Prior knowledge:
alpha+beta, 2 helices
Amino acid sequence: MLFMIIVKASKNSEAGNLPSSELREAMTKYNEELGKAGVRVMAKGLHPSSNGIRLSYPKQGEKPVVTDGPFTTQMN
């Protein structure tokens, strides 16, 4: 069974900034423990969702509408 651990997006993460050194150290320790237990398959980071695009198909059989970013409003 595979699991993905995701931290809720914030203005900081959406700007592509790294987490605090304290959080990075905790994540590193946790990943090391998973590796020692033999259950870690991989450990990779995701890009900010602001780098993504949204595809919608308003009419079946027609070309999709492409919108920058997955969200249409700014984060608070």
